[in-house]
Amino acid sequence: MSEQNSLYSDEGSDDNELSSGDEWLENYNAEVDHGSPDNNTVVSDEEANDEDDAAPENAELVWRETYEELDIDPFIQITGPSHNLNPNARMQILMGINQLPDYSFYWSNNKYLGNQGFKEVMSVKRYEKLNQYIHCNDIETDVPVDQPGHDKLHKIRPLIDSSLQNFAARYNPNKNQAIDEAMVAYKGRSVAKQYIPSKPTKWGFKV
What we know:
The protein is globular. A hairpin with a 7-residue loop joins strand 2 and strand 3. It has two domains: 174 residues, no CATH class; 28 residues, no CATH class. The chain has a three-stranded antiparallel β-sheet, with no helix packed on it. The protein has seven helices and three strands, in the order H-H-H-H-H-H-H-E-E-E. 31% of the residues lie in helices and 4% in strands. By secondary structure, it is mainly alpha-helical.
């Protein structure tokens, strides 16, 4: 089999040590903006309320412009000083936007499948190791199933809490939007999995 048709490439840097769960969450909690990389301030509820109180009562609502109106690329850059989010997490987001049948295809030597940007960030082996060992919470603090206070999502609870806080603080809704529930398809074993026959996607997680 020629090099051009091999499944995937090991291009990428393996020089960096694997990120720990604490480092991952610390980077995730940092503000993801287009300004200075040192600006990691998270807007608190109190600060947000102060800004709201400062606005005049008769202030006119101004909707933010859409990406199309501003001619801005909405996709997230994987590397660069303008983002503090862990590269592995950003790659996961981009994989959801640009979906392929298998994650190894992003490192394919086939020019129609491979993602050169992914190859420049890390090798496929490093990506696999990061996903194998990453932890978002301390399993020692997990309350057993048969005791009060058990959290089915304990393993990713800090990630969920950080996401909700960041989404609420940074999302600026535009004029045209719709909010609805959705089913994330999943047929594996999980206590959070649901079966809703009326949905197009019957098995999965309701979000």
